[in-house]
Amino acid sequence: MKKVNLHFLINGLWAWLFFTFLVLIFMPSSTWAAFEEDREKPDPEFSRTGGRITAKLLPRAKSSSILIDFEVSGGKLAAVRGMDFDKADGPSVDQKDFKSALFVVEVQDLAPGAETKVSIISDFFIRSTQYWIYNPKLDSPWMDSKASNLDRGDRIQELVIGVKDGGVFDSDGVENGKIIMVGGPKDSFWGYALGTLFIRYFGIFLVLCILMLGMLFSGKVFQYLERRKAEAMTKPARSGSSVKNDVKPDMHRLSLETDMAAAIATALHMHLAGLRSAAPIPYPSKQPGSWAQQGRQQIMGERMLKINRNKH
Prior knowledge:
Shape: rod-shaped
Number of helices: 5
Number of strands: 11
Largest sheet: 6 strands, antiparallel
Helix content: 40-55%
Radius of gyration: 54 Å
Distance between the termini: 77 Å
Strand content: 15-25%
Low-confidence stretches: 29-40
């Protein structure tokens, strides 16, 4: 049984590798875009609701649009617009880690040198999502904002960033009561890619293994039930044979059965013998008449029937 299972697992592994090879060969070019630079970069659509600005966009590796909300706790959120990543690309970051365009957040009506908190909210974020800031006036333009990643329930994460007017996160670099923050959410690309690969391909293999184990277990159950059924059918025959061997024959009953059989046989013989006539006995006669001779033979036959009946 173990050899059969091992052989089945080996064949399943080869089948899975062959399936993966076919998928990689015939994978559409749009899928490979996740491993390369984006060829299509649709501009985000922005809408305002009170003091909140919502960006609607189609991120990398997703087929449906997502929503990202922007809010501030100090000053006025003047505008949010998209920025092409090519304008801020550099060796310190990898574009694949940014699954959306960069955002330019503009805050006004602040006191010079004041600080505000910018909140970026979306169900597209996860607990490990970071928000990186780009400031072209610094020697190292890219930096981690160390944003607080807060769980708001319903799979919604909020990134809160403290930004000071004229600070390193302010792209204009001047304490003028106005903040321009450039940046975007960042997630590890390879973690996402490997996780997706594991879930899609190894997940299928695991499901097949679970199905195989379920089939083996159900086979064992059916074999057990069939064995129980066979044992239940053979038990009455065995018990009946043992009882018959242990019971001693009733001699009185056997003698009665023998006498009864003899009586029945005698009655049948007498009945059948009375129905058939005995063969005529030839009796020599000097009289040549055939009529008289036949009459005598008939009389003798009748007498012989009575004599034979008395003998029995």
